[in-house]
Amino acid sequence: MGEVYKAHDSRLDRIVALKILPPGGDRARFEIEARALAALNHPNIVAIHDVGENYIVSELVDGAPLPVPTGSAKRLLDLAVQIADGLSAAHSSGILHRDLKPSNILVTRDGRAKILDFGLAKVLPPTNQDADTRTIVETAPGVVLGTVAYMSPEQARGADLDARSDQFSLGLILYEMVTGKRAFERQTAAETLVAIIREEPEPLSPGLLRSSAGSSNGCSRKIRRSDTLPHATSIWNFVRCATTSPKSPLRARRLRRERPGNAA
Prior knowledge:
The protein has helices spanning about 25-40, 75-90, 130-135, 155, 165-180, 190-200, 210-220, 235-245, 250-255, and strands spanning about 5-10, 15-20, 50, 55-60, 65, 95, 105-110, 115, 120-125. By secondary structure, the protein is α+β, with helices and mostly antiparallel strands. The strands form 3 sheets. A 4-stranded antiparallel beta sheet has the order 1-2-4-3, with helices on one face. Strands 5-7-8 form a 3-stranded antiparallel beta sheet. The chain has a two-stranded antiparallel sheet with strand order 6-9. About 40% of the residues are buried.
């Protein structure tokens, strides 16, 4: 949705990331990304500094891609909770990411996860907004957007989405962080889409990061609309199950944190 450059902000003397909309680019989608980022202020989401008609200036994240596989269970769970915190904040603001994947998450030198690239974000309208206005931010039925390997079943079918779609993508990321391989990778994109819709991921081996296996297996299950409500804090609560287990290396640390939905 644009070309990103490392740039120098001469006014404030700082290095920033500059995203430019190329000629002929999707201006409507670019504006949605700008509005989505402007509405968010969270330590686990890239911060926006300025926006113009064809550019977005944001913080330049000095970090490395999300490690896959992650290695230690402690680090995996710490990063998982941070990513879930950021997604929860986005969902609380009525924003779906729709393209969550390891390459859209960077980890800074001090271990902070940062969610990037809201280029495919969907800004949900207020419930009292009229239908004519609502169509401006909705994707046409049957249109598939996102990265195939990390889509939810609903996303693969081009169906309406809510926060649970991002939850499913997070589950796929956790699975890959544990195993080092994608849950539904097949030889072609079409086969991968069919697997996401119809199949289950290969179960984790019992001895593989025992403290996080249950969380990853459960989070990667198919989304059934009757199972859970699309609540913004449900991702955080789900991952917290692993971190508050008596055997979890993060139990004491996580019990001292407030649930995002009760922070205000």
